[in-house]
Amino acid sequence: MALKIVKGSIDRMFDKNLQDLVRGIRNHKEDEAKYISTCIDEIKQELKQDNIAVKSNAVCKLTYLQMLGYDVSWAAFNIVEVMSSSKFTYKRIGYLAASQCFHESTDVIMLTTNQIRKDLSSPNQYDTGVALTGLSCFVTPDLARDLANDIMTLMSHTKPYIRKKAVLIMYKVFLKYPESLRPAFPRMKEKLEDPDPGVQSAAVNVICELARRNPKNYLSLAPLFFKLMTSSTNNWVLIKIIKLFGALTPLEPRLGKKLIEPLTNLIHSTSAMSLLYECVNTVIAVLISLSSGMPNHSASIQLCVQKLRILIEDSDQNLKYLGLLAMSKILKTHPKSVQSHKDLILQCLDDKDESIRLRALDLLYGMVSKKNLMEIVKKLMLHVDKAEGTTYRDELLTKIIDICSQSNYQYITNFEWYISILVELTRLEGTRHGHLIASQMLDVAIRVKAIRAFAVAQMATLLDNAHLLTGNTQHNGICEVLYAAAWICGEFSEHLEDPMATLEAMLRPKVATLPGHIQAVYVQNAAKLFSTVLRGQEGAPADSKVAQETSQLLIDRLPVFVQSANLEVQERASCILQLVKYIQKLQQKDVEVAEEVTALFAGELNPVAPKAQKKVPVPEGLDLDAWINEPPSGSESEDEGRKTKTKGKAVFAKEESRHTKPRYTEVDEKELAKRREVRKAEQANNPFYIKASPSSQKVYQEAVGVEHIPVVQIDLSVPLKVPGMPMSDQYVKQEEERREKNKADRKKKDKKKRREKGRQRRGDSGPESEEDITPAHMVDIVTEEMPENALPSDDDDKDPNDPHKALNIDLDKPLADSEKKLPVRTHRPDEGLKSPVEDGEGLEVASEPKKKSGKEKKDKERKKGKEKKKKKKHKQEEGDNLIEAGSEEPAQSEVTNDVAAQPPTSTPEEAAAVADPPPPASSPEAASGVAAVVPDSEPEETKSSKHKKKKQKKEEKDKKKKKHQHHHHHSDGAGDESVQNGTVEEEEPLPPMSNYALLAENSYIKMVCDIQGNLHDGSQVVVSVIFENKCDSFIKSMEFNVMDSLNSKLQRPEGAGPHDSLTVPFQLPPGISNEARFIFSMQSIVMPQKLKGTLTFIVKVSWSCSPQSTHIPHYPNQIEVYLSRVPNTTGVDL
Amino acid sequence: MIKAILIFNNHGKPRLSKFYEHYNEDTEQQIIRETFHLVSKRDENVCNFLEGGMLIGGSENRLIYRHYATLYFVFCVDSSESELGILDLIQVFVETLDKCFENVCELDLIFHVDKVHNILAEMVMGGMVLETNMNEIIIQVDAQNKMEKSETFIFQSPRQDR
């Protein structure tokens, strides 16, 4: 009965496929999570079944759940199972699931290597295709290394369907395993001319992707791409190639010149907008890279701009957007050609699409000049009024400020106008950018000295009307402006018309509702104002009563701030309150205090460039990282660090500049004074420098008539001094007049000159050129804001983690013999085991190091060298040998190996390579099988023909190797060599028979091996392996297999597949050992090899020994051993 | 490179997600949500590009999307892809789906997300465009489906299959 129920539920479970799951989820909208968790339980049950159909159905459902955000990594092993199904249907499900949820840290991925290899070589092209697609999503460095060779073979597959996939996936392989790039590249290049357009397109795709990151290595392919560009009709390929050329041209201007013509032809002929657009883009890139001034290129620019105009005018928003995007690229180098389309761009500001408006704004940023800045900003101000949505309006606001402040206010000719623009911007309700406006106000007031009087007047008005800013909105954003206003009024109070009135305004009770940091500035600057008032009044001694009244005002009002909850405000207020009380006492005694009070705030503030701190050169002998005292407890120093950090980040650097100022003046006060004098003289001589005079201020203020005042915002009970919208317009007019006048003056002067020059100059009606407009105010030069001896430096902001860095490999150098095949990387190299003694090997690879002097090459060599070193280190027999070699050539360094240094070092190294390191195979408890391994096999006899062309030295070396091959015992004529061999023998601590090195060992079996060259065939190596049965059971059916590497192949009987294993021709009774020989054929002798192999065997378990396994009298064991010469890197996995 | 391909409906329900860089499930969901928020608030007649690429990778990424009836097709790409090219690719993708499902609608995508993945795999592989020719894509997809059918024919019911 119970069984029936179980059976029934299992049946139902089987029935639920993906569609049922989806339907179920849709039917359980209220308790979706609960439903899904029951589904996952069911899936877990299904995964326990043996039936692969059920399993794959479960995996399919998991893939869907993964998309909904459920972690399914727990089922990774089941996914691998489904992947390895022989049926395409299930395999595809498995690979899809794997591609969705496997990643580099998924540990079961290492189990898939063989399965994927099998699928890649499957006769069914779709098995291969599915494997490639899956692999492209989850390839890891290990997989890339192990499968690179198989994939490379697939690049020449007969079916284009496989070829194109193989070509594409190579990009991923390169990324994960950069060493494969050089060997694989020639074939990749061939594929550019593949008869199948799909394969061709894939190859173009891969090379473009590679070249984009490291363009200089691919310049040599330019002719080939040029040919493709003129012959191909596939728009996708064309677009990719044209984009690639865009990346290449900056490196090779000659290429650019060649490109212009075909590209312009394409622009004229193509009907595809995408192609047209990319052509225009690349032409722009070409023109940017070419030095300007070539007459015939102005035509190309015109063509581009004209085409872009068509795009922008198109009704398709996408084209419009892209047109603006490309236009901004032209703008950087050819601003004039873009500026003529200003109308169009301004029109785009009215577009309903925000992205287009933002693009247009970007363009405006680059389009402004001294001449049109006011006009453009005026237009933007209109948009600010219209823009309802705060985000876009905020964007506009920042853009206005960006545009005006770019490159040190380069385009601002009239700062009075700019200040009034800033003041107008404070009228924006609810903007977030109060601090931005404030910092601009501060910046301008500090750096443009001539504007201070005007700025102070404006700020005083602002302070007076503070309730308009704070009253209208609850958003505090705009209050920040008051911070700037208060500070400017205080700091430059000598320019104030009526400091008393401002002081009064700053001490109104309502101020206490402002944010704390603003109140603090209010309090501090009230003190500054107080000192100004005192000074002003003590000048006229009759008014000492007024001075006392001022003190009384402060004493009356300050207590509000003393009670403030904000510490900063409280502290400053109480400090100043006490001070004022003291002053009042002195005043009552008729003591003159003004001078002393002023001295509190004496000294000038100088702006400091944002990077100034960074640029202070470190004095010689000063180590900034060294502790001055014993390191204090961690928290303290951290606190301090944080403090300075936040200070540095503060928008208003006032406090900071206060601190730095005295030091600054101390250091070079003289220098500063000198500069100041120079500047003053300069300003005095500048006819356009408007000196701040009270009269000019009055003019502006009077000009603000009642009719100009915006009706809405202003409370009419307030004095009508609020600068409203018309203010800035007025400056525009003034500015125009000023320019007209200047122009007229200049014209008179120029007339004579012009006559001489004749037609070369533009006509009178032509637009003013940039340099004709002189700014009305000077901006302090930035250099003054830099410390002495500041070092000009470019910040290198390249990402050190960019995976593409590793692919910066020179591909033009001919491949060395050793490189023709993919190198095999060490498995899990152990970094800790480097020895400083040995170096300079790895050089075998570079048989002609002088020719291959490329940096990458060296790096590569070094890498290889390291690998070898690690290996070598563990060969104890050779240890002495190596040390000896090291002592012979002590001066050698890793990088600077040269041929001369080679012979002595390479010799012992070869010797080292012959004898194998003993890699102990760790045996997992559960494992009953043994790991088998084939050690490296580098040295074998040289194919002398291969090396004929190489230098004499190389040949010598090869000879030596040969000799060593046959056991480092024999010596022959070659001088240094024989000596070495001699030492080897003498110092060899082991008996001669111990050439057998331990290969692998576990509780059942032990393997030792020896490697010898084959005397009859120079390209073969014989590996003798002794198998020893360590357990007390019978071991049989041993199968030995070694994965072929690029360089070496296990010789198999005829008819056997490339992955079949060899049967060991004997069985092992307990305690018995026997030897078997395996032959490997070698491609190259110059590379050390690490081979990975497996030994599968069956242990006959006696009944008494393992009672648990009674039902399985025989069980196969398979252990995969990742063999490496480094003992502790050997990993064993079931 | 294409960084991710997302399909979701007007309510932000994911119908297909394919990330060519690895993110954990939570991040993936967040990316889908944020992308939906960015895309869904845009009017119909505005451009199809968005510089909201901060979600995936860096600022050089862009979102290129198309809106068909109830579904948004969003591709997140870097600067090596042509904007208009990707728009065409989305069109090819949708037309291919239309052919394979015969008048595709959202329900097809809901119930056969695996098939959609298989079709996509013939177009884009590992973030790189594999094939843009619709006929070629359909030929390969059909051939694989035929193989699948022949297998189920031989083994009749998958339940008895071992």
UniProtKB/TrEMBL annotation, chain A:
Residue ranges of every copy of the AP-3 complex subunit delta domain listed in the record: 667-812
Matches recorded under InterPro entries: AP3_complex_dsu (IPR017105), AP3D_dom_metazoa (IPR010474), ARM-like (IPR011989), ARM-type_fold (IPR016024), Clathrin/coatomer_adapt-like_N (IPR002553)
GO CC, one annotated term: AP-3 adaptor complex
Record's bilayer topology term: Peripheral membrane protein
UniProt KW Acetylation keyword: yes
Keywords: Acetylation, Coiled coil, Cytoplasm, Golgi apparatus, Membrane, Phosphoprotein, Protein transport, Repeat, Transport
SMART domains: BLVR
Region Disordered, annotated ranges: 624-665, 721-990
Biased composition (Basic and acidic residues): 652-665, 732-743, 800-837, 847-864
Biological function: Part of the AP-3 complex, an adaptor-related complex which is not clathrin-associated. The complex is associated with the Golgi region as well as more peripheral structures. It facilitates the budding of vesicles from the Golgi membrane and may be directly involved in trafficking to lysosomes. Involved in process of CD8+ T-cell and NK cell degranulation. In concert with the BLOC-1 complex, AP-3 is required to target cargos into vesicles assembled at cell bodies for delivery into neurites and nerve terminals.
Protein name according to UniProt: AP-3 complex subunit delta
Species this chain originates from: Hucho hucho (huchen)
Upper lineage: Eukaryota, Metazoa, Chordata, Craniata, Vertebrata
UniProtKB/TrEMBL annotation, chain B:
Superkingdom of origin: Eukaryota
Chief location bin: membrane
Keyword Cell membrane in record: no
InterPro entries registered for this protein in UniProt: AP_complex_ssu, AP_mu_sigma_su, APS3, Clathrin_sm-chain_CS, Longin-like_dom_sf
GO biological process: Golgi to vacuole transport; intracellular protein transport
Membrane topology label: Peripheral membrane protein
AP complex mu/sigma subunit domain boundaries: 1-147
UniProt record similarity statement: Belongs to the adaptor complexes small subunit family.
Protein's UniProt name: AP complex subunit sigma
Source species: Salmo salar
